[in-house]
Specification:
The protein is mainly α and 174 residues long. It contains 4 helices and 2 strands.
Length: 174
């Protein structure tokens, strides 16, 4: 493009100023000439920094993922233990009900007047005892799943310390 045509085009665009002379040569020289050592070093440093940041991001993502998975596993284990503890408490309630039914049958047995009635009540008591054993077995497995021994009130006792002393000793357990 000639200088006159360029000047005319700039005027039409509303610009009065014109580009500095030789600007095309400067652009050509920047494209054609190789980078200097300093520019090459800057580019290598920039690539190294970008790679380091990418590595840090990957490690951080991996760490957060592992942490999340371990927290989920801990929550699932806690839910499982809570469910097992609820099962244990439910089985203990059923066992208490069964025991009260056995006591009622025993009272009926004592009040029975005929031998036939006593044999029928004995069979019922034997059936209640079998049911109680099955309930106790289910309660024991639920307690094992819950991860320890529980008291009748549902409080968890620590199974780590065993005390070998006479239970009648007043200083036992201190």
């Amino acid at each position: 493009m000639s200088e006159a045509r360029l000047k005319e085009a700039l005027t039409r665009l509303g610009r009065r100023a014109r580009p500095r002379p030789g600007w095309q040569d400067a652009v050509r020289a920047a494209i054609v000439t190789p980078r200097t050592a300093r520019a090459a070093r800057r580019a290598r440093v920039a690539y190294a920094v970008a790679a380091a940041l990418a590595g840090v991001c990957l490690l951080l993502g991996w760490f957060l993922s592992e942490k999340s998975q371990s927290e989920q596993a801990a929550r699932a284990e806690l839910r499982l233990k809570a469910s097992a503890l609820a099962d244990y408490e439910r089985e203990m309630k059923v066992l208490k009900t069964n025991q009260s039914e056995q006591d009622a049958l025993l009272e009926k047995y004592r009040a029975a007047t005929t031998e036939e009635e006593r044999t029928r009540i004995e069979a019922e008591i034997a059936e209640k005892k079998r049911q109680a054993q099955a309930i106790q077995a289910r309660a024991d497995t639920a307690r094992k799943k819950a991860g320890g021994y529980t008291t009748a009130a549902g409080e968890k006792r620590s199974g780590g310390i065993k005390v070998n002393c006479d239970p009648n000793d007043p200083l036992c357990g201190l």
